Amino acid sequence: MAVAWRVKATELANCNCNYGCPCQFNALPTHGDCRAAVGYQIEEGNFGSVKLDGLRAVLMASFPGAIHQGNGTMQLIIDERADPSQRDALIKILSGQETDDMATFWWVIGAMSPNKLEPLFRPIEVDATVETRRGHFRVPGILETVGEPIRNPVTGAEHRARIDLPHGFEYRIAEAASATTRATAAIGLPGLEKTHSHFAHMHVSNKGVLD
């Protein structure tokens, strides 16, 4: 029997597409391929009886084409503070195990990534505020992503846009932003320089997005 799980988290994502990210609209990636880094601060969660409150994680992924075309490579970085049972739980959740088919973003990435690199266990910093569209996540010596509001190219004023997905498998509403990622990871992440980013409050279970 599958283990029931639930996660409430703040998400900061950065990919190589233009602002808005065509994937959010069932279109092909801006440049034909997909590269992304996503950081998570878990406010509360559980995997069966295993508590996940306060833990952090990072997902890195790269696809030669659109995500649904497969042949992706992914790697997870798990908070080094997690104990063995928490590490196992987060790996299963973030790679799409113990999840209904196509119910979550993590299931999709896992299913489309036959190349799964060994997870790393490292200190992770995550400081992200959805409402202000500002934040960062960092794994020392591996990667750092910094997100900020999109700015009007003429006036420099902050520009706000939201992505509303009533039937999404990642979130319901995300704040669109701009972000830059610097990485020396096994998965190459070039081209993430002031490209699409989004900040979102996630509430997800093994059955899908809850609210």
What does this structure look like?
The chain is built from 2 helices and 16 strands. Strand 13 and strand 14 form a beta hairpin. The strands form 2 sheets. Strands 1, 2, 3, 4, 5, 6, 7, 8, 9, 10, 13, 14, 15 and 16 form a 14-stranded mixed β-sheet that branches. The mean pLDDT is 97. The two termini are 25 Å apart. The chain is mainly β. It has one domain. The protein is 9% helix and 45% strand. The longest helix is centred in the middle third of the chain and has 11 residues.
- Oligomeric status of the shown chains? single chain
SSE run: EEEEEHHEEEEEEEEEEE
Q: Please give the share of residues in helix.
A: under 10%
* Number of beta-strand segments: 16
Which class do the helix and strand fractions yield?
A: mainly beta
CA distance, first residue to last residue: 25 Å
Estimate the strand proportion: over 45%
* Mass-distribution shape: globular
Number of domains: 1
- Cα-atom radius of gyration: 16 Å
The chain-level mean pLDDT equals 97
Are there runs of 5+ residues with pLDDT below 50, and where?
Answer: none
**Main sheet: strands, sense, barrel:** 14 strands, mixed
Number of helices: 2
